[in-house]
Structure formats: C-alpha cells, structure tokens
Amino acid sequence: MSLLDVRDLNVVFQRRGERPFTAVDKISFSVEPGQTVGLVGESGCGKSVTSLAIMGLLPKRGNKVTGEVLFEGADLLKLRPDDLRDRRGRDIGMIFQDPLSSLNPVIPIGVQVAEVLERHRGMDRRKALREARELLDAVGIPDPERRLKEYPHQISGGMRQRALIAIALACKPRLLIADEPTTALDVTIQAQILTLLKQLVDETGTALIMITHDLGVVAGLCDTVNVLYGGKVVERAARHELFARPRHPYTHGLLSSVPRLDSVRGERLHAIRGSVADNIPWTEGCAFAPRCDNVVDTCLDGAPPLEPTATGGDLRCNNPVSEEVAVP
Amino acid sequence: MTERTEPLIELRDLKVHFPIKSGVLFDRTVGYVYAVDGVSLSINAGETYGLVGESGCGKSTLGRGLLRLVEPTDGEIVFDGTDVRSLKGEKMRLARRRMQMIFQDPLSSLDPRQSVESLLVEGLKAHGLAADKAEVGRKLRDTLDAVGLPGSALHKYPHEFSGGQRQRIGIARALVLNPELIVADEPVSALDVSIQAQVLNLLEDLQNERGLTYLIIAHDLAVVRHIADTVGVMYLGGLVEEASSDDLYREPMHPYTKALMSAVPVPDPLVEDRRERILLAGDLPSPTNPPAGCRFHTRCPWAQKTRCVDERPALREVVGGHKVACHYAEDIAAGRIRPHEVEPELVRPDDGAAPGDPGELIPTP
Questions:
Q1: How many helices and strands (H and E) does chain B possess?
Q2: pLDDT tens-digit profile of B124-180?
Q3: Which of B249, B265, B364 is opposite residue A217, by nearest beta carbon?
Q4: Nearest by CB to A146, which of B194, B271, B358?
Q5: Which chain A residues are within 8 Å of B221, Cβ to Cβ?
C-alpha cells in the first residue's frame, strides 16, 4: 500500500455571483514510503492548492474538495477536524515558502518548536525545550541554546527556514510536504537548505512531496516528477527519464526555455508562446493547445486522457514530442 | 559583440552609503549601511554588462546610484564623456532621456490609473518630444510593435495585462525615449519560467536592432550568463570578480563566485548527481558592519590566516581581462591552497541597526 494515495482530487473555488473556478482538476498520484515526489508547474497550475487540500488547510467556505486522499489507507478528507489535527504535524509535516509569515512573530522560536512536541508527543515544556534544542542543532542552526529564546525577526531568512524544517520534522513524520521551500532564499542559502532536506530525508526515511516551479531543484532531488498544467497532471515520469526525454510539449518547452549555466552561449532561448491567460478549459480540449507547437485537430475534442507510456510514466497528450528529439 | 570602443558609461570608485538614524527629537546618525562601497566598472557602447549577486549585496543600489535615483556618496559617474554627478537640476533631468530603467515588478512600477498611452506619452512630454501629435502616434505604435504588443494596448490599463505583457509595457516605457543606456533591475525574476525566455529574447532583439547598451542586474546566474557579454559579481557592496561571460563561467576564480556557481541547480539529473557543491557556511554578513579585510573571509573555505583578515583585496587583473579581488586567486587556481571547513558565524538581520540582547522572555509553565 502506498503511503499517500491521492485519487481524483478536485478543488473548485466558488464565489457568489462568479463562475466556479477549478484549481485542481482530478489529480491522482501516489507517494511510496521514503520516496521523493515532485509537483512542478508555473503559477496557477494548482500545485499549492493540491498540497493545502491534502493537509485540509483550505478555508472552510468558498471551495469544494472532492476525491480521496488516502494516507495509509485512511481518507484524510473524511476525518473529523480533531482527528485530522492529530495527524497534521505528527504524521505529515509541512514547510511553506515564506518562513517569516509562517512563524509566529511574537513567540520565541524555542516555544514554537516545543509546542509541536507538547501537542503530539505529550512532553512537558521543559523536556520539549530540551528536545527543541537538539532539533535546532540537527538542522544546522549555530548556537541553538540562544536561538531558543529568540524571535523570528532576530534570525536570517535561511535560519528561519531551518527552524521551520525543525518544526516540521519534530515528530518524525512519515510524509513531509515542502511547498516552494527555497523560493524566497538566495542561491547559496538554497543550496544549504536543499542539501539539508536531502540529508534529513535520507536519514529519517521520510517521504517528501516537493512542490516547486524550479526544474533545477527537481532534477537533483525527486524520484518521480509530476508536471502540472492548468490543474491537471500532464506528464509523470521518473527523474532521469523526464529530463532526458520529455514527451509533453509543455515539459519540453519548459526545459528548453530556461537558460542554463552549462549551455552554449549566444543561442536563442526557445520560448513558449503566449501565457496561461490563453488557456482553454479542459472540457473544450487540451488547456495547453493554444500555446502548443505540436497542436493537432483532436486537441480541441475534450481533454486528452492520461495514458501510461512505454517507459513507465504517464502522459496526457495527443501528439507528444517524439522520443528522438533531445532537449537542447 | 561590437568592436571595442570608448566606454559609454564608466563608474570610478562609486560609493552609496545610507545613514542609519536614531533618536526621537534629534536625528543622530548612528552608523551607515555600506550598500555600495567602492565599485569601478565601465560598459562599452552596444554591450551588455551583467551584475550578479545575492540579496543585500548592493547590486540594485548600484543601478539606482548610476542613474542618480539615489544620490551617490562618493565617486565618479562618467556617461559619454560628461560627469553625471556634476549635472544639476534641469540638465540632469534632460540627461536621463539617454539612460532609462526597467524595474523588477511591472505592476508596482506602472501607475495603475494611467492608460498605456498616457504612461508612454508622459516621458515624451517631460522631455518636450510630444509636440507633434502625428509623430507621437507613430512613435507609440513603433515602440509597441517593437516590444510585441498590439496597437490596441494603448487604451488599456496595466491590470488588464498578464505579467509578461506588463513587463513589455515597462520596456516600452523605457524605450520610447530612444535611450542609449538601459539599466534593467531584475527584469525577469517576477515572471514565470515560460515567460522569462520571451522577455530575454525581446531584450536581445532590441539590442541588436537599436544598438542599446545594457546594465542587467539579476540574481539568477543562468539568466545573466545567457544575456551578458561581461559579468561582474558583487558581494557586500564590492565587485569580487569581473570577466567576460564565457571566461567567468568556464573558470570562476574568486571563492565566492565558485560557491555561487556550484549552488545553482541545473535542470539535468546527470549533472546534478555528480556535481560537487561548495556549501557556504552561514549567511551574508550585515552591510552596516562589514567584516574587516576581505569581506568574504568569514565564509570563505580558502581563507588564510594572513592578509585575508586585515587587508581588503583590490580588484586586479589576474589573467587576460579576468579581474579578481582575492589575495590568493593564483594559488587557488593552481591548487596550492585547499579548501577547509568553516564554522558558520551568526548573522543577525538587524545587525548594528538596533543593537540589543535577545532578552530573557521565555514563558515557563
């Protein structure tokens, strides 16, 4: 049994007097114990909403979540709020993009780490603080004894993200969801945090869902990568397969449009034309069709199905990029 | 790349320091943020200079100081033979027609209540170029055409456009005055990956068509490598390395540049799996209280006991055209000095600005 099995997850936002908007459109994927799975896509593709829906963190009003989120067989979407709260933080940890807004500015860092241990592992404050000190040390925060008493504004962005990781890992969760954990950080700090995450995942055997727009981050970290476009998975493949032979025109376009540090200079970038604003609804055809170089007539006859490929992945495309076309 | 000509713009030992004020009744200056602390560089006409560095290194302040959007504290700015810092009032305003800026976030740098037409005409009016209506109309259409926007865009407002299109408006706004130098501060970092390529290609096309000179400021090394002829790397207010784009990426010589390059993720698992990262310890020190000697010595894996701590290295030419500000650049390149472990030093975001103890406010049960 998979650790996490997301089946036909659907999130529709509905505001009074407006047309409903489908942010996540029947997404299915699974995470095995110890595996690192990437959700990649640009803004508006539904990657963050997916993670919030899994964690039950979407606002109670104004949206409709359907489908199943099976964590070790139990559907998280059907749990009572109290039971869900028991699981969040204990079984599933989460790291957000902006550590300053996800830490409480008026509570010392030590207390924020200790809080999780008190809530989920029933420790008293004194013992929890001692454990918190160990945790801060484990995520590489220098002089952890003093950091315990400090407030989030007193430490740097990289250190805040480390503190957040310490909180997420405090109860040794079996699944960690990281939503753009390094986007707000500088490259050298990003390298520190990614190395730390990789090391912690290896040591503890925690499964990781990595949500990012940065294909470079995925390339070094994820076992399986799901590429999202317009709320649907358009391509899923193992890491090496995806980067060596991207089949979906969107994945291919993304990979050839980013300037690379190791590419030959002076070549023109292959830009994807148009923008997400050009998307058509999936009910009418492939959302990417208006921007796609490979578009054929059948692309406008409803959404193409997600079908397994010969290499063990899945692909949602009527006219995929041929396997011979290498990424420049 | 054009032929080597006279530099269009030259900075000599430019400094921009911001005073830190304290006190209620009397503003006392309690210290300075040394945002840009002695930078010299020159850009030849028709070339692109890329300035990279992490947040807080002073790269944006340098761009603004160059256009005198913030007043430099010291140093010289020579634009096409004239000393920009000696220009006053009206003369300075008129000189700005020839040097324009593209900002990072097009939504906050474009007035939401002005139509595209009024945004573009504003600059022309300010420089007395809007006298002939027909001429203005032609100019606007040409400019919109050059940045790839339809003529119908003129009567729309910034919020009606997508991020990439808004950045095109920002570029059109700079372009309509027919400038020679364009300073672009993080022109693509607010955009989605698929849109970044469109804007980068556009900047390149415009340069080829109009012979523009660019100063591109960015934190993304891959973007800068793609677009720049010469690249300067900044760390804590100073240039630590400057070389042609190809040289710099082939053989970075300053330890900071080495670390920076090894930290950039490459979208290729084969590269990612076998690369060795140089992980820097700790964070960027505060620019209010920069380390003595070499500013990088607190985090440098190659730092030596002598000189690095007490002598600030000058930017010097090490091999043909490749300038490095490191005492031991040759020794590191030849492998005579090996990297070692560095203990991270603690850096506080408010270092120096508001000194104070963390306090003893820890709630106990």
A1: 12, 12
A2: 998 988 888 899 999 999 999 999 999 899 999 999 988 889 999 999 999 999 999
A3: B265
A4: B358
A5: 187, 261
